[in-house]
Every structure is written in structure tokens, then in C-alpha cells.
Amino acid sequence: MRLTTYTDYALRMMMFVAIKGEQLTTIEEVAKSYGISRNHLMKVAQALGAAGFLATVRGRGGGLRLGRPAHLITIGEIARVTEEDMTIVPCFAGSKNDCAITVTCTLKHKLEDALDAFMVVLDQTTLADVCKSSLPLLPRSFAQSAE
Prior knowledge:
Layout: H1 5-20, H2 27-34, H3 38-50, E1 54-57, E2 63-66, H4 75-82, H5 107-123, H6 127-130, H7 134-137, H8 140-146
Antiparallel strand pairs: 1-2
Helix pairs in contact: 1-3, 1-4, 2-3, 4-5
């Protein structure tokens, strides 16, 4: 299983915002800290806001904060919102399945089990869990200014 870059950016953004606590965070701050395109992060922030993970404050002095407490947000929830699909092999594609051995193949069931196990771990992991040791998670430039 491989998560997309979009999900990676979403997870990084959520961790950054969680670490900042009640202090508002701007997309620009996250973009500069991680060396990620501001335009990409704007799309990510919009999706995370629409899903209720982030709350946005508009206007001068505005920014982002968590939409609910970090201990109530799971990594699995974020992955489900940011991943377009979890089609790890063609036979998971439903009507678009072009696998020649689907009818007789038993591997599909094992792969489904593996994907389910992967998601169980993500569902059992909260944003708070991955942010317990916050300083090492912050980009070097931000961590140095926080010391």
C-alpha cells in the first residue's frame, strides 16, 4: 500500500497545525517550512476544511487551526478523505477490473485482508498519537525558532 503525495501533504499539514495548538497557522508558513508548493497546500487545506479536520479563520491575522481535538482525529479518517481510492490491484476496481484471472484468483481476498489491516492500524492512530514528540516533527528551521 502506498499513500499519495496529496495524503502525505495532508498529514504533514495536520501535524504542523496540531503542534501549533491554538495558535493559528498559515498555509504560507506550512509551505515554507516543508518546502511544498503553496498552491498544492491550498487545495489540501480546502479539502481538510471541508471534511471538518481544519477550521479556517479568514481575513488579516487569519489562518488554520484544528477543527476538532487531535485525539479525536484518526490518521485513517484523513487517509480516506485524501485518497481517491484504495485500489491497490486491478481486481479492486469493480466494473473497471481488467484482470484476466479474477474469477479463479484467491489472492484478492488476502490483499483485501492486508488493506483492511493497514486501515485498522491507521484508524487506531490519532493525530495526537503522532504529535506526542512535537519538536522533532517540525522542520528544522521552525524547530530552531521555537527553542
